[in-house]
Structures
1.
Amino acid sequence: MIRIPPPSAVRSSEITPEGLYRNRRRFLAEMGIGAVGLLTAGYTQAKDVPASADGLPLSIAKKSERAGGETPTPFDTVSTYNNYYEFGTNKDDPAQNAGTLKTRPWTVAISGECEAPGMLDLDALLKPHAIEERIYRHRCVEAWSIVVPWAGVPLADVLKRFKPTSKAKYVAFQTIYDKAQMPQAKWSGIELPYVEGLRIDEAMHPLAFLSVGMYGKTMPNQNGAPLRLTIPWKYGFKSIKSIVGIRFVEAMPPTTWNKLQASEYGFFSNVNPEVQHPRWSQKSERRLGELFKRPTLMFNGYPEVASLYSGMDLRKFY
Ligand code: MTE
């Protein structure tokens, strides 16, 4: 057993939580990254990292509105109606329970088919990039939706730094899984750690975003602090929270909901009003806070991604 000293003995900034440590060791072992990967990462840890970064103002370099001029859903709604099964399966559970997740220090393991794998401190991961705000629609597979001003960086800009090789056909993502910090996880009913994946051209699309905040501030834990995917043309479950591993792979990687029920949750999971979920229609959705349903738009209203799927039968590749 690896024991964590009591907080009084060590400054909180020096502690890597046990589960985090073990989870990363396992992830690295699975990914085949050893000490060499760690030593060759070549980035230094950013300084002045706050012990808890939740709710701090972010300095935003650029803003873009990509939700048809719609007003963002109120922050209080977006931060209290969540899916984050590691912290409970009711919509209000994550806001109540996710405070136990320590989001600093935070390391992301980059591995697989790339020339520059390594373990990166979050702040080193972000340092070369300017933080942007993007107002996106976000459509959950359960037929509710929200409009959110996310803050983050284009996913492609981050991924390109690790120089994926020609064998990198997909990108696999993994969430932290630490039973000590996530006591509700044992009742989640899903296999953890939560895993997701994108085809490499999807991941490199300019709309694909790695979010570190929302509403101009750092991300609340329940929304996936300290960093999560935001893929606005796909159902919400593709937007994996609290990422600790990014792996470039040759074969289509397993994804959490697909493993649980493949007939209901495909790998692609593009928002598509014409392909119904086996148990409900996807033709319409309810914007949280609104009384009446509205029609669901193909690719959630982001037609610029259509060329990623030309020639594909989207009923088969749902
Ligand atoms: N990521 C993890 N690790 N665990 C989860 O349970 N839920 C997904 C996705 N990412 C989930 C996750 C689902 S089903 C949705 S709809 C979105 O997160 C919800 O994001 P939000 O709570 O910020 O609206």
2.
Amino acid sequence: MGPHLDDHTDSALTKLARILTGTSHKTDPSKESCLRTHRGESVIGHAPVQTVDDLEVAVEAAKRAQPAWEALGHAERSRIMLEAAEALDRSAEALAQLVAHEQGKPLDGPGARFEAGGCAVWMRTAATTPLEPETVVDDDSGHAVLNYRAIGIVGAINPWNWPALIAMWQLAPSLRMGNAVVMKPASDTTLSVLAMAAIVNQVLPEGVFTVVAGGGEVGAAITKHPAFGKIMFTGSTPTGKSIARDASDNLARLTLELGGNDAGIVLPDADPKAIAEGLFWGAFINTGQTCAALKRLYVHDSIHDEVVAELVAFAKNVPMGPGYEAENLLGPLTNRGQWNIVNDLVEKAKADGATIALGGNPDADAPGYFYPATIVTDVTDESELVSEEQFGPALPVLRYTDLDDVIARANAVDVGLGGSVWSSDVASAREVAARVQSGTVWINQHGTLHPLVPFGGIKSSGYGLEFGVEGLKAVAVPQVISG
Ligand code: NAD
């Protein structure tokens, strides 16, 4: 018995259920986990819980399949990947419905339909981005060309917040460069990744891409396994550090996309009304469960109160409820653990004298893991709501008066994924941006991603780049042919 969705009247989900049931995952029904929706915590389907033995089967299949996949060459792999993107387009609505049911994000806005559509976009972009050999020297002193070759087998381990899309970010460039991929999804969002895999595996040759749906021990086994030349990991900083240790014996190459605590800096010339919507979605996209979301907002004292008022005015009209009900634009948190983290951080800030400008008063007994959009003021940099990653819908807003001082405060954390500067003067905002220690700094927006623009963290947010040409190089090994 394979992964399946329990009875659904929704025709999109029924179609996806058929694709999922057609997959060849061998599972022991007695070990199947229950996946839950976020209202009433009702079961929506069943996913296999696989083991390290299943990982060995996947690795053997990848070893058999990879040489022929690499030998196809870029043009033929791209053609097959474009077919896979079309398959994703055909099943996009079904995948979006599943993500909304399983992970919880709303269908519309920057939600599940965006995520499902993004899978096809990233697959297409990876398929069509040119990567030519680079002639580095060609003169009397010599002739040298830098090429990028397949690594072999890539291990991909992903988190639960954008399950299908993050899985695609790891998969698509790896495929393009001629690698086979063995992937481990997060336990909370296994079906979304299995569904994405079932869709693209209608087109990909057998063994090129296999999902092993186990827990953290399967992730650790991937990381230590000598078959993997590269591990792509997206998740928390503590797990990333453990992966870096585990991968060291085999010197597996690593891309580590880890946690963040992104600061936004609002300069005194910003227009509070004009930036409120961008600030809101920068922070509250996917109910705050986004790696590069705005997690601390520093506002110049002269416009602080106005910015808070505009943010509250915008936020209080954004409907929250089950993601699969069309009217909602904010969904629940994905699991009880994350709900507890957010609630604890807000309660601690309250106890320390913070003001709750909006939200902050959840009904803990209500079904589902709903935490209201919360805006917190009168909070200090020492508050854990500011110094820790909340990964949820609670935004602390802090005052500043001096630019050098606020840049130092923004940089005073050990992570550096994203950041943003908000101003009516883009040129001066860019100057400030250059001083912010993070892999990306946005101007008058936060968290916007583009499949051709490299994305990655610095400091404890990890290393390595995804997307664009840099993302292709990251899942390849360089080879110089000299002479
Ligand atoms: P997590 O680190 O708990 O889990 C991520 C994945 O790692 C899961 O599949 C998990 O089963 C697996 N895993 C657990 N222990 C492992 C081990 N010892 N070895 C190998 N794999 C192991 O993260 P999460 O709670 O699922 O996701 C939330 C975190 O991810 C947040 O910190 C968030 O900021 C971060 N994140 C970062 C990015 C980015 O691009 N930088 C994107 C999304 C999420």
3.
Amino acid sequence: MLNGGRSKISDLLRTEQRNIDVVVKGWVRTKRGNKNVAFIALNDGSTIHNIQVVVDPAAFDEELLKSITTGACVRVNGVLVDSVGSGQPVEVQAREIELYGGADPNVYPLQKKGHSLEFLREIAYLRPRTNTFGAVLRIRHAMAYAIHKYFNDHGFYYLHTPLITGSDAEGAGAMFSVTTLDLNNVPKDAEGKVDYSQDFFGKPCNLTVSGQLEGELGALALGQIYTFGPTFRAENSNTPRHLAEFWMIEPEIAFYELEDNMELAEDFLKYLIRYALDHCMDDLEFLNKMFDDGLIERLNFVLAHDFVRLDYSEGIEILMKSGKKFEFPVSWGLDLQSEHERYLVEEHFKKPVILINYPKEIKAFYMKLNDDGKTVRAMDVLFPKIGEIIGGSQREENYDKLRQRVEELGIPEKDVWWYLDTRRFGTAPHSGFGLGFERLLLFVTGMANIRDVIPFPRTPKNAEF
Ligand code: 4AD
Ligand code: MG
């Protein structure tokens, strides 16, 4: 067994066996007791629950026991027995304890329980050791696994799209440039502009904001693909819903129209939420108790209801008639802010909403133009507490129409010639969408700030760990 010579605490808390020898290894959450007995609450990350280790102080070296403080890492050999206390089914009666590493109580930052999330962000290198981040990170893993499982079970291929890109066609956000030029001594051309011919790729390059354009190339060959990787946006947006580095899932499907795309998005989201309820209940119950007492109810609620499908224009009408004072005033053509999205979802419909057919001016060049010539076959899935969780569309497959949009928007041909070519060679109707992984995790964990659902958040002025 590849178990590092130990039993996982999650397994021991489930087993029916008693009076067996066990080895547990983990980090001390608390130690309490008196001269006659000590109790160590040990956690190894396999579950939100600790196992209780019972120690007879007389049988152990005093110095060793003194070093076993909150945060220390130990190996315990002992016997698994029914617990006398009421808090847990079993406990380990220690026979032998080895200290792997102490954690000096005078300096170890995670002494008490109940540190604020803001404080924990400052010590992001240690916060996985807390119950909260243990729960969030286990759910994050489960969701990543479920995403791959869903697509694999539905016959999608996982396509790896590049992180470094030579095109800025998507226009989804400001980009980070990738260069090996010496910024203190930048080579210039005859006109005094940066001479990128001397740069690593011989041209300006950036970190990608989305894998979609390359994803479309895959869909028009393999039929249905998805990407799942990091994306980068250099906007200076300091909000609880934006990261500079976030993970996105982007399925792209040949022969899908907008209606198929909406059905896939709803089925996919519900599958993921159901997966979390089926596989992560211990962690969800913890988060429900500690942070958001409506969490589990909200997850079940979304599963139980059809998403509303609504035209952008109707959405605007509802917002205008709402009588609500919004920070950004509403009129047709407005790019919805999260206050508008959340009004529709939380106050008006009280259900997730898929908003479609947006004005072309506020959406990307590749979206399929409707017959009205004004709107495009875009779809945003709006969720309670989150706002936009998914953005997607049917793509423009007509070469002339796509080309016209590219020209109208002044997108340089050299950036998109290969993309346009897909519409010259065996073009097909197709659609896709992007799910923000951390936005999904905000919804599933009930956490309020996106910095708390990714292990190492990247935001303006923040890339320490
Ligand atoms: O709506 P967006 O910009 O769409 C795209 O990038 C398309 N290429 C997707 C596609 O059709 N294949 O981004 C998609 C999703 C958003 O709905 C949101 O959930 C998330 O990505 N997102 C962010 N998440 C965290 N931080 C940010 N700065 C985000 N920007 C977008
Ligand atoms: Mg969007």
